[in-house]
């Protein structure tokens, strides 16, 4: 179920609806497509009210997670379906009768040309005679995109189209989708639960939780200035560290930390701070550290390394990004000291909303 949604998508932008499973992002996409009906509110596309219009009158094209290809049709036939349904009459669509009708022959030739052009743009022209069972996952995804492209809609709607692909192919297809969007210059609304897809592909992202949009903005703006704890946690990778604000201010360098945190602390109790692994680093000694703790785990992945540290006075470990050379010499249970960049600390209230220093907000 969706709550009150106020969403304006700019013409030609790549907007991504991102959030955990069940947050309502696919439902919102289906409402735009006309596949579900809203109990209240209005939906407009290109300035036209389509709230009560059936899907075929909304001038949108939707690409589904499972591609929704007809298994008995070839690639060319699958891609031509929307054009045949739009341009040909019932009798003209019949294989034997349609071929005997001059007007139908002209329309079919035009459809064939348009399908071949779309196939070339997706580099699948050599697959036009194959059927879906003969295609890889990435090829099926391109066919589904091609079927949407030939319609030349006002809006493309993509519902988790990469979720069935393996990790390497997803990365490749992300790049292809961005380039396709640039070539076509169309409005594209994309649904995903994958933060990497949202952050790397989009003009703007709308982060959804429990049927509501908690924040909308450019990927950088949402990442650097999250308005809610849930937004910060969801967008962070490998994860957002959270601690009581009092624990940070009570550390060895508490009095040296940015005075904005002290100002915020004076405004209320039970405040939570959030900071990402890249906002902290290992300190040389306790005297110059914010917090200390013992190493639980070291993770290395190529050029990146992370250590999990259980801080003194904390109930859950924090993750610190370090150089691989640092991680390689650390042992489990070894005591380490951590320094946190105060300018990259977010403070959240009990309800999860961001708490800011009002002096800075007014400046």
TrEMBL record:
The lineage of its organism: Bacteria, Pseudomonadati, Pseudomonadota, Alphaproteobacteria, Hyphomicrobiales. It comes from the Bacteria. It is a peripheral membrane protein. This is Sn-glycerol-3-phosphate import ATP-binding protein UgpC. GO terms for biological process: carbohydrate transport. SUPFAM superfamilies: MOP-like, P-loop containing nucleoside triphosphate hydrolases. Belongs to the ABC transporter superfamily. The keyword Ligase does not apply. The gene is ugpC. Its main location: membrane. It is found in: Cell inner membrane. CDD domains: ABC_MalK_N (cd03301). GO terms for molecular function: ABC-type transporter activity; ATP binding; ATP hydrolysis activity. It comes from Neorhizobium galegae bv. officinalis.
């Amino acid at each position: 179920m969706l709550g009150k949604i106020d969403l304006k998508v700019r013409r030609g932008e790549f907007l991504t609806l991102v959030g955990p499973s069940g947050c309502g992002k696919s439902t919102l996409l289906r409402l735009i497509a006309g596949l579900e009906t809203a109990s209240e509110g209005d939906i407009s596309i290109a300035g036209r009210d389509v709230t009560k219009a059936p899907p075929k009158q909304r001038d949108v094209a939707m690409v589904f997670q499972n591609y929704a290809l007809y298994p008995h049709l070839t690639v060319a036939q699958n891609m031509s379906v929307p054009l045949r349904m739009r341009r040909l009459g019932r009798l003209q669509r019949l294989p034997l009768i349609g071929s005997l009708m001059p007007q139908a022959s002209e329309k079919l030739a035009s459809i064939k040309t348009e399908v071949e052009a779309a196939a070339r743009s997706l580099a699948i022209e050599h697959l036009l005679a194959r059927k879906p069972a003969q295609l890889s996952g990435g090829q099926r995804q391109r066919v589904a995109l091609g079927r949407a492209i030939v319609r030349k809609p006002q809006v493309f709607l993509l519902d988790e189209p990469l979720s069935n692909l393996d990790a390497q192919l997803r990365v490749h297809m992300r790049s292809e989708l961005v380039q396709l969007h640039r070539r076509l210059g169309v409005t594209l609304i994309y649904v995903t639960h994958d933060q990497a897809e949202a952050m790397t592909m989009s003009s703007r992202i709308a982060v959804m939780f429990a049927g509501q949009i908690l924040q909308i903005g450019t990927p950088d703006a949402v990442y650097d200035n999250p308005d809610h704890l849930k937004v910060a946690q969801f967008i962070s990778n490998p994860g957002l560290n959270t601690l009581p604000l009092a624990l940070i201010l009570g550390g060895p360098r508490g009095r040296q930390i940015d005075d904005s945190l002290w100002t915020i602390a004076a405004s209320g109790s039970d405040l939570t701070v959030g900071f990402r692994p890249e906002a902290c680093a290992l300190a040389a000694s306790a005297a110059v550290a914010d917090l200390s703790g013992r190493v639980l785990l070291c993770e290395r992945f190529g050029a990146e390394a992370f250590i999990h540290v259980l801080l003194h006075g904390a109930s859950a470990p924090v993750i610190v990004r370090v150089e691989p050379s640092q991680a390689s010499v650390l042992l489990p249970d070894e005591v380490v000291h951590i320094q946190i960049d105060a300018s990259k600390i977010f403070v959240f209230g009990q309800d999860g909303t961001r708490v800011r220093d009002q002096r800075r907000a007014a400046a």
